[in-house]
């Protein structure tokens, strides 16, 4: 092996490693953003990144080969025309081949993942009044938000509904049609031991997904809509919950508040809570208590307000971070709210 050939090999390897390093750091976003532009409207949250690295390594290695021939070897284009043309062709063809393989791999991976039944689906609504937040500082708050968690029997139905969504339109992010969504679905799959997630928003009769290339895809499926309506109907039934715990501004802001929030109501107290939702306890007027609770649902409950309580409800069979609903209780007026219905009840012994 001649010294020139050895130096050329070292240069190509060094350039390849440099290109690989730059593609995982400085130029990663640039290369990836251009790669995903060639994809159809698919979920791009878990696409293989190895092709970004290969692209950077290949381009810089070929470019280094050309520079070595021109600068160090000073090869004449006329004498080594074939060599130069091959290198220039590779500089064009190699990225196209890598991009093509990336497209095939990405599409097949997404189809394989979304072709299975989801392992977990959680839905959270984006409507005003579906969360209760207590201020724990001047610019932060914590509390509870309504969410729905699906158990095994419904996962297959929802998975089928998601697979059978009909693509209606694909637009750029600037042309987003949905000003505000009614709900957001977090769907988690598991394929070959790896997890894969998909996010869908729903509103105005359409399902919205941010897809590859910075675009937005809109889908429709009446059957999936009906499943959602059924799920929300069940979430409004107190009998679908089996645990509850109480929070307010004091527990949120207390140093040991995290420990206090782990304590659930006793089964006896939970039954009292369920029994309080009687038709005869319904409030049909806009009382002071109703107004106070409505205000609490619009704005953060201030730290000094200690009479507003959130009663977290946990869906049967769900973990502590999903499958939630809540009630709001105003101790001052003894008013309880659940699913936009207001009740005149005394729960002071439970929330104390």
TrEMBL record:
Domain of life of the native organism: Bacteria
Spans traversing the lipid bilayer: 12-31, 51-72, 84-102
Keywords of this entry: Membrane, Transmembrane, Transmembrane helix
The protein's name: Uncharacterized protein
